[in-house]
Amino acid sequence: MGFLELLEVASMPVIQVLLISALGALMATQFFDNILSPDIRKALNKIVFVIFTPSLVFSSFAKSVSLDDMISWWFMPVNVGLTFLIGGIIGWILVKLLKPNLKVEGLIIAACSSGNMGNLPIVIIPAICDEKGGPFGARDICRNNALSYASFSMALGGIFIWTYTYQTVKSRSLKFKALEAAEIVKVPNKDFDANAETHLLKDNDSEDTTIQVPTSTYIGDTENQIIVDQDQSNVSKKRESSWHRMVEVMSHLLAELMSPPAIATFFGFLFGAVAWLRNIIIGDDAPLRVIQDSLQLLGNGTIPCITLLLGGNLAQGLKSSSVKPLTLISIIIARLLLLPIIGLFIVRAAANFDLLPVDPLFQYVLVMQYAMPPAMNISTMAQLFEVGNEECSVILLWTYSAAAIALTAWSTFLLWLLS
Q1: pLDDT value of residue 205
Q2: Topology of 3-179+251-418 in CATH?
Q3: What is its main location (predicted)?
Q4: What is the pLDDT of residue 222?
Q5: Rounded Cα–Cα distance for residues 267 and 348 (Å)
Q6: CB neighbour list of residue 372: distance below 8 Å, 6 or more residues apart
Q7: Which candidate, 411, 365, 350, places its Cα nearest to that of 149?
Q8: Are 378 and 297 in contact, with CB atoms under 8 Å apart?
Q9: H or E element that contains 72
Q10: Per-residue confidence (pLDDT) for residue 238, from 0 to 100
Q11: Interior/surface letters 137-157, b for 16+ CB within 10 angstroms, e for the rest
């Protein structure tokens, strides 16, 4: 295939996402009577999360994934972990160089480390297979494999996002709130201290100087006792806070593992790996094939709903300009240029050492995991901790706008490289 043909194949899915996202953004404005209001987006997001996405994940996994496939995909969890690790290091370096407001620090690290491992891959990667002349083989086989890869990527990304990214955003948010609270009470404390000091001086002046109370030893012992008690209290508080953080992380990890998409992934793997379970619902002669057909029908609603919600959420970034241009440019370069280059070298090295399946579509998915814009769940976390909501919307808006060009370029290059 020539360069223009590859460019057409790579750009069509991105253009589809742009068009539907633009419609979603318009539906979130007054021009469409605010059809996608925040409450409606929240409700629709729940339907997608609980019904549509699990149906799509299960139907694609049960149909196209076998036990041998699961074993051969072992590198994908490692790859997803590397995207978060390397992106987090790059984000930390940006924070040290740019020295932004503490409210934005967590968002910068999260935006660099946490890519959109679920929504966009499910939309873009299968669409590559629908284009004529694609380099990944027959359309039906390619699409089933692409949905399986993207679904597995989504499940893995969700686990990392709600552990690593969640703790990153939470720690910076709590520090910002503590600093903000300290600034608020700073002036009243000074006034109180000054008044207390004035009264103390007056009391000292009015005291009878002939009265001498030898209390220095007693006071010293009391102070030492207070210091010891405070040290013990601080140690116990640190132990309690460490234990509380560990329990909280484990609870969020368990909640993510028990989420509908994760459960659908597990059962999809189970039905795909066990032959007699697979034969119950998959195939023209399967007695319960109506279940698979129903799940596929529900799963077909996932992609349009996700893309409309993406546009509606990004529309919030148009209302604010609270992030410096240099910060936005740095995040875009790190997330959409530097990280994919590193990822390309990692994936090609793994392929050269025969650590990956022969399927070139698998390598395509691995590299594209590095090239995805920031995860939309970062916005959910910002809303959860009520820190940096506007800044997060601005970062997502501009990174996704730049991703329209970056994803097309990377997809075209990878199609040329792997074809």
Answers
A1: 47
A2: Na+/H+ antiporter like fold (1.20.1530)
A3: endoplasmic reticulum
A4: 43
A5: 32
A6: 115, 116, 117, 120, 121, 403, 407
A7: 365
A8: no
A9: helix 67-72
A10: 55
A11: eeeeebbbbbbbbbbbbbbbb
What pLDDT shows up at residue 331?
94
Burial class (CB in 10 A: 0-12, 13-18, 19+), 229: exposed
Q: How many CB atoms lie within 10 A of CB 54?
A: 25
Strand partners, 374: 115
Domain ranges of the chain: 3-179+251-418
Predicted TM-score of the model (pTM): 0.72
Largest CA distance in the chain: 107
Q: Which of 17, 201, 119, 96 is nearest to 376 (CA)?
A: 119
Q: Is 199 helix (H, G, I), strand (E, B) or coil?
A: helix
Which residue from 22, 271, 302, 312 is spatially nearest to 154, judged by alpha carbons? 302
CA 215 to chain centre: 60
> What integer pLDDT is reported at residue 236 of this predicted model?
59
Q: What are the per-10-residue average pLDDT scores of the chain (419 residues)?
A: 70 82 84 81 81 81 74 90 94 91 87 85 81 75 83 79 80 81 58 44 44 42 47 57 67 68 79 83 84 87 81 71 85 94 95 88 92 83 74 85 90 86
Assigned token pair, 340: 């994919």
Q: CA-CA distance, 24 to 21, in Å (whole number)?
A: 5
Distance of alpha carbon 35 from alpha carbon 38, whole angstroms: 9
Q: Classify residue 365 by burial, with Cβ atoms within 10 Å: 0-12, 13-18, 19+.
A: buried
In order, the DSSP letters of 315-359 are GGGGG---S-HHHHHHHHHIIIIIHHHHHHHHHHHHHHTT-S-S-
For tokens 């709600």, name the residue. Answer: 162
